[in-house]
Design goal:
The chain has 295 residues and is mostly helical. It contains six helices and no strands. The protein has helices at residues 15-34, 46-93, 103-119, 126-219, 228-254, 262-294. The two termini are 121 Å apart.
Length: 295
């Protein structure tokens, strides 16, 4: 118990340190003498004196409390012995001494005493036994109720555990199926990606063709304002003109079989040319009028 980090106590500074040192020394001597040993030498420092004084105060308080309890227990033991002697004298006076009782009676009395000790009752009266048994019954009922609740909770937990295991098995099976479908899905995705690339190429091609067709329609004077009905009407005019020009063309073709007469042939050809030019002019006028109406 040598504390090298502290300084020795100066006993001349005041009576408090000297008193504490004297109390500590007296307590150490009493404790070591009780086990037949001498007090070891050590350096008295403020820290060690304070710690030992606290221990001495606690030890003395506990020793005093233990002495009081021991004195009370000895007093109770003396009272129990005197009461036992008095009860023994009473039993002997009525002929119920333990030595005079048959072995069965002694055994029964010992059983009753053991039961009383087990039930933690101070006497062997019937009312005490009944109260103790009732208390045990109540505690038994409480324990049975708690056990029933515990079994119910255990059953619920077991049910939840089974459901969780079933759900886990289902999830594992689903995960396995998804992992098996990954390869198929990847192949399908690659196929779709290839088709998408082709469709993008086709889209660019179609857009280019659309631009070309649009430019071509703009060059020929077609606009989006021309409706289907107007186109049908223009087609009907074209058919009428074809009907009008067809006899002329047939007549011109028939002239190829005539004998060569330059004057008559020239007059006929010139007439047909005028008719053909008039028909073309009429067709152009109809087309321009249709376009002007649509604008």
């Amino acid at each position: 118990m040598n504390d090298l980090g502290d300084h020795p106590v100066n006993e001349g500074k005041g009576g408090l340190d000297s008193t504490r040192i004297a109390e500590v020394k007296a307590w150490l001597v009493s404790q070591f003498e009780s086990v037949g040993k001498d007090v070891p030498e050590f350096e008295y420092t403020p820290r060690s004196i304070s710690h030992l004084h606290s221990l001495a105060t606690i030890s003395q308080a506990k020793t005093q409390a233990a002495g009081i309890v021991a004195s009370d227990l000895r007093q109770k033991a003396m009272e129990y012995r005197s009461q036992a002697a008095r009860i023994r004298e009473i039993l002997q006076s009525v002929g119920l001494a333990q030595e005079g009782l048959p072995p069965n009676a002694v055994t029964s009395v010992q059983v009753v005493a053991n039961v009383a000790n087990l039930l933690n009752i101070r006497d062997t009266e019937m009312s005490s036994f009944l109260v103790a048994m009732a208390d045990i019954s109540l505690r038994k009922s409480g324990v049975e109720e708690k056990r029933a609740n515990a079994q119910k909770e255990s059953k619920l937990l077991l049910d939840y555990t089974r459901k969780a295991i079933a759900r886990l098995t289902y999830l594992k099976r689903t995960l396995g199926q998804l992992e098996d479908d990954v390869v198929t899905c990847e192949g399908q995705m690659n196929h779709w990606k290839t088709n998408l690339t082709i469709m993008l190429s086709k889209e660019r091609q179609y857009l280019l063709q659309y631009s070309n067709y649009k430019a071509l329609l703009n060059r020929v004077g077609y606009t989006s304002d021309i409706s289907h009905g107007e186109l049908v009407e223009m087609d009907e005019h074209r058919k009428e003109l074809e009907k009008k020009t067809k006899p002329i063309m047939d007549t011109l073709r028939s002239y190829q079989d005539l004998p060569p007469d330059k004057a008559l042939a020239a007059l006929a050809i010139e007439e047909k040319r005028r008719q053909y030019a008039a028909a073309e002019k009429y067709l152009e006028e109809v087309l321009h009028s249709a376009l002007a109406t649509s604008e």
